[in-house]
Amino acid sequence: MLKLFVPKMKVDSIYEIDLAALLDQGFRGIITDLDNTLVGAREPEATPQLLEWLKVLDKHGFRVVIVSNNRQPRVERFAKPLGMPFVYKAKKPLRTSFKKALQLLDLPPEQVVVIGDQMMTDVFGGNRMGLFTILVQPIAPQDEGFGTRINRTLERVLLTFMNQ
Ligand SMILES: [Mg+2]
User: Fold this and answer.
1) How far is CA 84 from CA 25, 36, 48, 65, 104, in A?
2) Pfam families in the record, alphabetically (predicted)?
3) Which residues fall inside 5 Å of ion ligand 1, going by CB?
4) In principle, which of 11, 29, 34, 53 could form an S-S bond with 16, CB 3.0–4.6 Å?
């Protein structure tokens, strides 16, 4: 049970992910969280660094979809200008939004990675769908809401249990 909370890969930020290696392993699609994964939780728009990264993803031929537990205005305002498909109020770790994201990507689960900054939602949700999960460090943890701070406390308890 606990291993469902353990990411397959851990990096400091999305910019450290070895995209060529993912391609080599047969991955073609990315389901990514938004808040504190792509930008800080209170950043309304993509940063120049993120725009560059998205270009690189595109060059590599990756399909990308944003799956966020946040509300429609936040997610839409961020994703629309980028022309990225998105799922809002995703209720991660429930499976529904991951299934929807796989449909949007039109890829089989074994070709898709999940990127996110939370073990309780992104990693747990991705793992229980059998997807390859990548955990990043939260960009701006000081800006997190109440629910997320509770999840962080649970994360710390889990990590202590798992001795990591
Ligand atoms: Mg997040």
Assistant:
1) 24, 17, 16, 6, 11
2) Hydrolase
3) 33, 35-37, 117
4) 11
Which pLDDT value is given to residue 164? 57
Q: Distance, CA 63 to ligand 1 centroid (Å)?
A: 20
Q: Is 30 helix (H, G, I), strand (E, B) or coil?
A: strand
CA of 88 to the centre of ligand 1 (A): 12
Average pLDDT over residues 114-118: 97
Tell me the torsion sign for CA atoms 74, 115, 145, 103.
positive
Residue extents of the structural domains in the chain: 2-162
Q: Is 0.90 surpassed by the pTM of this model?
A: yes
Q: What DSSP letter does each residue of 122-155 carry, written as one string?
A: IIHHHHHTT-EEEEE--S-GGG--HHHHHHHHHH
Phi, psi of 114 (to 5 degrees): -115, 130
| Ligand 1 mean position, distance from CA 36 (Å) | 5
Which of 33, 42, 36, 37 minimizes the C-alpha distance to 67?
33
Report, as an integer, the average pLDDT of 137-153: 86
